[in-house]
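Reminder to self: tokens first, then the designed residues, so the page reads top to bottom the way the pipeline ran.
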């Protein structure tokens, strides 16, 4: 029986990267390719399967139905292949990643999944710190970071990890007292707990809640998400945070305040210097993080 031919692995990798990153430019940057080289790889795959995988509109590339079907079929297989190869790497040297990560993301999303990463790559070890403003140290004392940001920095390789909504969170007693409908005059008498790096989130929420410039509630700033949640649980004020911070905390002392749909100006992003992706520990962690969808 004749052996079936397979498409070039590099073409499949380029295809999957474009879909996952949502941008041909981002995929080209991640793979260290020129736009024309990336395009050639995609064209080679389209020629191989005999179908158009993308609709090209100016700088945008939108999946066709055939493209979506192929992605659904091959992406899990490529992930499994990468994992199997990773577990059979002959290099037993210790691999170390120096990572800065925000405490709440680490506690709620990263650390609970670290055993999966350790199982796949036993040689990879991570020095983790929660220092504020890590970006200036990238490429020096840090290899990579997970940060809250309101948009990409063109000098960095950045992968968006979520798109969240802003919620007000308070103790169950305070939530009961403030009621189900925002009362701006009553809210103006409250104390709010805001992360130092999320000032715009508070402005977005107060606007949605109907607070006017004349309403001047007090605001306490913290540089730690876990501390904000604990302060809110202790009745010290209303915390303004991403919605999943509450759902992942599993703290019965806390409850959401009002049912407001407020888009967050901020998202969690994985960031590193573009050249850091040539570093094997960075590449391993980067690929695992994107695929794990924490």
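Designed residues (294 positions):
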């Amino acid at each position: 029986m004749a052996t079936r031919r397979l498409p070039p692995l590099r073409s499949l990798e380029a295809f999957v990267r474009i879909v996952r990153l949502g941008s041909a430019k981002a995929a080209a940057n991640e793979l260290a390719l020129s736009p024309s080289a990336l395009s050639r790889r995609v064209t080679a795959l389209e020629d191989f399967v005999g179908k158009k995988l993308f609709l090209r509109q100016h700088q945008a590339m939108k999946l066709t139905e055939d493209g979506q079907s192929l992605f659904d079929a091959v992406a899990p297989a490529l992930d499994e292949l990468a994992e199997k190869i990773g577990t059979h790497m002959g290099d037993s040297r210790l691999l170390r990643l120096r990572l800065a990560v925000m405490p709440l993301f680490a506690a709620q999303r990263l650390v609970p999944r670290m055993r999966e990463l350790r199982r796949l790559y036993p040689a990879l070890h991570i020095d983790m710190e929660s220092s504020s403003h890590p970006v200036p140290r990238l490429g020096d004392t840090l290899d990579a970071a997970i940060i809250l940001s309101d948009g990409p920095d063109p000098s960095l390789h950045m992968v968006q990890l979520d798109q969240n909504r802003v919620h007000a969170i308070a103790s169950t007693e305070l939530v009961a007292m403030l009621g189900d409908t925002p009362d701006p005059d009553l809210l103006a008498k409250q104390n709010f707990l805001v992360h130092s790096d999320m000032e715009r989130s508070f402005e977005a929420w107060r606007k949605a809640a109907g607070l006017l410039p004349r309403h001047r509630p007090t605001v306490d700033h913290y540089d730690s998400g876990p501390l904000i949640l604990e302060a809110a649980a202790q009745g010290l004020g209303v915390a303004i945070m991403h919605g999943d911070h509450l759902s992942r905390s599993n703290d019965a002392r806390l409850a959401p305040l009002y049912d407001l749909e407020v888009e967050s100006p901020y998202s969690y992003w994985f960031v590193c210097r573009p050249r850091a992706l040539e570093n094997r520990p960075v590449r391993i962690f980067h690929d695992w993080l994107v695929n794990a969808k924490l």
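The two ends are 43 Å apart (CA to CA).
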